[in-house]
Structure formats: structure tokens, C-alpha cells
Amino acid sequence: xxxxxxxxxxxxxxxxxxxxxxxxxxxxxxxxxxxxxxxxxxxxxxxxxxxxxxxxxxxxxxxxxxxxxxxxxxxxxxxxxxxxxxxxxxxxxxxxxxxxxxxxxxxxxxxxxxxxxxxxxxxxxxxxxxxxxxxxxxxxxxxxxxxxxxxxxxxxxxxxxxxxxxxxxxxxxxxxxxxxxxxxxxxxxxxxxxxxxxxxxxxxxxxxxxxxxxxxxxxxxxxxxxxxxxxxxxxxxxxxxxxxxxxxxxxxxxxxxxxxxxxxxxxxxxxxxxxxxxxxxxxxxxxxxxxxxxxxxxxxxxxxxxx
Length: 307
Description:
Layout: E1 2-7, E2 10-16, E3 33-34, H1 39-52, H2 62-65, H3 81-85, H4 108-113, H5 136-150, H6 154-163, H7 205-208, E4 211-212, H8 214-228, H9 238-244, E5 257-258, E6 264-270, E7 273-280, E8 285-291, H10 296-306
Antiparallel strand pairs: 1-2, 1-8, 3-4, 5-6, 6-7, 7-8
């Protein structure tokens, strides 16, 4: 387990307990874990940075901004960027199972089309547009959009637009991360065994591809709060930050969720990894926990109370 808490403008606690891999080296606060669906918050910030810079609008129909691949299905032409960020675009594929490291990894267009070697079906609109339906697939459509708008690899754009400006030096969307071997936590099964070849690869980076630490996520969350409070030099304008942290439907904001107590949160589950964060915008307090085991959530539910 690796975890962090912050209060107002600074980290209060960064700690790590356990091992990077069963019977292996102990983890540190700089050991990177797969963040799974917490990646969606980083992706949302990347999208909002493009809105901030006047490159796109949240209410642009996504098909009007895509130059190659297009979203299909009933009312697909009415699906907006805002809808895909808030899971209200009616799109398919809730989550992605990932790929073994010795698998043939599909290209982004193959994932979008649902053709081999992709292990999920085509991403398309199958539910009423405007109604909540959790969809990592819709977020991957935004990965395609960002790649086309910036004419650069998605992971490089996210690093330049989000990770580097926010000081997230232990974070990357690159899949796989081979250049920092020894700093990555290995995933473990429900029985505590190391998963084959240590971790799975997720080319669906916007939905599940982030490698990071709780400390880096704390920096991101504090930057979001700074933006919502309209602080000078904040990452995005106050109006955008408030939109991000306001429920569109069913507690889903833009890359985040808002519960009945007003807490901003998201959880994530990749094969062998679990992660979660909670933030109270009123008190500016937050907590983040990451684990490299299938049972990580059973531990972090108790740990969150103690934190």
C-alpha cells in the first residue's frame, strides 16, 4: 500500500508499506502503481486544458472534431465532449481487461473498432444520449480526439499539458513503462501471487493507462482545488474547474464523481491493482491510496477511515 493525505496547501503524510513484488524489494513513496480509472481525471484535465486554450469547446459534437475515425450509433452526431467526460454519451465498454506484456498490443484505431488484436468490441453509441452509463470506451474516444488535435502521441501530450505543469514527476501515461524497471509495483492476484510478467498493458491510456504515486495525485488534486477557488496562476479557469466538479448526472462530473456529501472522488481497478482518492473541497483535505493487489480495496476501505 502507498498512500498520501493533504490539508489545505500541503502534503501531511506520504507513506508506503509492503513490497513492490511478493518476496522482493520494499516499496517507497516513489514506487509507481497503476492508477486504473483514476487516469480519467488526468485525461479530463488534459481536455480542459485544450478548452482553456480555445482549441475545443466542451459542447462540441465529438464527431465534428474527429478527422478520421468517427463515433457511430443512434444519435452519435449529438454526442459532445462534455458527455464523454461525464459518461452520458451512451457509449459502450465500461472497462478494459488489459493485455499480457507478450500479447500483440492493438493500435488505438483497432481498440476503437473492436478488431483483433483488440479484446473488446467496437466503441459506439447504444444507449440514450444524455443518460448516465459508465463508459471507459467514451473516454478512449477522447484519447483519439486529443491525439488528432495535438498531432502528437497521447502520452506525450498529457505529459506536456498536465503532468509536467503540475509537477507530477513520478507519473506517466506511457504503455508499457520499460525505462524505469525496478520502480514499478507488480500486480498481484487475489491469492497474493505475482501476476504473470508483473503487470498488464493498457493501450486505452485515457481510461486506464496512468502510472503514478499518491504524492503526485495529491499535487493534481490540490491544483484542481486551486483552480476551483480561482487562485492566481491556477491550472484552469475557475469556471472550468467548477464545471469539472459539478454533477452532470448520477454524481458524475467531468472525469470525477461527486458523492452526497460533496466529496470529489474516483476509484480504479486494473488487473492486480486498486486505487482511490477522496477530496473535500470545503476543507481542502484529501486522501489517496494505491495498492498492488486484487484485494487492495478490502484494505484501503479501512485505511481510508484511519486516514
